[in-house]
Design brief:
Keywords: ATP-binding, DNA-binding, Nucleotide-binding, Transcription, Transcription regulation. This protein is α/β, with parallel strands linked by helices and 672 residues long. 44% of the residues lie in helices and 14% in strands. A hairpin with an 8-residue loop joins strand 14 and strand 15. The structure holds adenosine-5'-triphosphate.
Length: 672
Amino acid sequence: MQDISDKHAALSAQLGTRDQLVRLRAIASKETHGTVPAIPDNIMIEQAHERSAGYGIPKSATPDYNPLGRADLTLVLEQNRMLHSHAAPVMETLYEQIINTHNMVILTDVHGLIIHTLGDADFLEKADRVALTPGVTWSEQSKGTNAIGTAIAEKAPTIIHADQHYLDANRFLTCSAAPIFDVMGNVVGVLDVTGDQRNFHKHTMALVRMSAQMIENQLFAAAYQDAIKLSFHSRPEFLGTLMEGIASFTPGGRFLSASRSGLFQLGLPMSALQTHTFSSLFGLPISALMDHYRTASPGLLELCMHSGVRVYAKCSDLRLPNTSFQHASGNARQPDAAAAAAAAASAPSSHEQSKARLSSLRYLNTGDEHVAVVIDKLKKVIGRDISILITGETGTGKELLAQAIHNDSPRKAGPFVAVNCASIPETLIESELFGYEDGAFTGARKKGSIGKILQANGGSLFLDEIGDMPLNLQARLLRVLQERMVTPLGSSKSIPVNVALTCATNRNLRDMIARNEFRDDLYYRLNGLVVRLPPLRDRTDLDVVIEKLLAAEGNGIHFTIAPEIMQLFRVHNWPGNFRQLTNLMRTAMVMAGADHEIRMEHLPDDFLDDVALAVAVLEKPAGALAMSDTATLEDVELSMIQQSLAAHDGNVSATARALGVSRNTIYRKIHP
Ligand SMILES: Nc1ncnc2c1ncn2[C@@H]1O[C@H](COP(=O)(O)OP(=O)(O)OP(=O)(O)O)[C@@H](O)[C@H]1O
């Protein structure tokens, strides 16, 4: 686990600077949502043990490992669908930071019932033995003092390490948990990292807290759909990062809610803010905000908070009354294709939705020949009841393309509903897609659910990662596509449905068919037109794409990229494609700050490590490496490593030193 601090640094670099992290810790410990004052850990743990004893659990007891039944778990997942869908991607990012450290990431509901886990296979086996699996409850009442249950009881981030656990059976664990609050400050769940106590690392808690806050911000962005959401911070470069404050107001200016960082910056508790308005908090009527966004190219707003502190602010996706004029990311809507493509080119964020709305085939056509051919083909089939299958590596823009297909189709006024088959637990896919009737399974909630297929009626349905759909559901999906009828779970009635279908996958469906993992009849129904999005490394329009990203993410500031960095970008192989590029650019822009030029020192270490070999290759005199004309950069890199290894008698450390890269990079390049 020794490299968790590097991972921590990497994540915090993604999210903001070290200052921000320190500030975040201050925010978290200030507990603006909860009301619990800071209590020294040992007192808190003593109290938790007293509570546990009060529940009558003997310390030596074998805990209750029985998970909920499948149907009841489905119901819990359904009840926590919002939490789960916002937490799942954050959990993946968190897991990437702690991968191979014998830890697992756990999400529970408000009662400590596990609804989702991600973890290292070896630890998962051990974890199974103490039932860290979906459907098992880790409340204090059930397992005594443990980070999840105690975080819920204390409404505060909690570390429970080794013999601080109440039950003897759990003392081999170390757990760091943070409660997740909803927009009104109520605990809705817990995010936790649990591992073997020998692998304890003091930075884990900070990672968990930051991740919980990311989930809270996303819950916040998804709530109050019609509200005016103001992002603000005293430093403009923090807008768009985890540290920005967000507050929402009714169109009349009444305060509705604020994110955790928003509350901290406003310096008032939620209860006191309920009596406030935009004007009492920022000294301007809300109409002034509207007027600002009616101007041709509104930049950031400067506002003075009631406390006297000046902040920079912007509104995402502001809907102005009496006009269809909309703003994305606080920039004026620019009528030319370039501006819209710039918006389309940005990475996932709270502005993702507004950017998606701007996505269109024309805007995605940024000069790469292969993409141009794809777009030409798509234009010919749009609106003709032909299923489209998009293939391509992760992050190549499959979902953005599906949205663009919808936006350019005659169905554009209808809904665009995207379902990621890989991110929904298998038990939930069926009800998520097909819906269910009242009482379809034990204790099902009063009102049924119409399901995603019917939600897309009259519009487009996008099934991402279709290769991850379980076989039994593939048969059901095929029936729906053939009969154009949906029968919700527990219902005997079929409902007619009319959707345009686009699917995407980064797996080879033909290979899956050969292994009987994918139905061939469904495949032939889905592949009316198959298009492949090229990986970023093969695209010839990288310069244009980067220019657009700089424009879209610069918040009105014109950033440039130093020529040597641009050269590195051209030779890098971008395994995460657009997703990696947009994240890197966003971080680099924050790091560059007032410099406005992205240079080497603004780039994350892992990226620099990855490109170090490329730099060495570029600097090598021509002819020094005898390679054929068709050799790729990777071939040259590999050859260079082999030559250097031979020169250093196979010593990896010496080779890494000589080439200026880490030992890990050498291993990774040799055994990809
Ligand atoms: N042409 C593009 N220009 C700039 N950014 C893009 C482009 N295409 C996609 N992006 C951005 O890259 C990120 C990933 O895109 P998207 O989710 O569409 O990829 P994907 O192929 O569906 O990924 P996955 O397979 O992992 O689901 C998004 O933030 C998106 O806005």
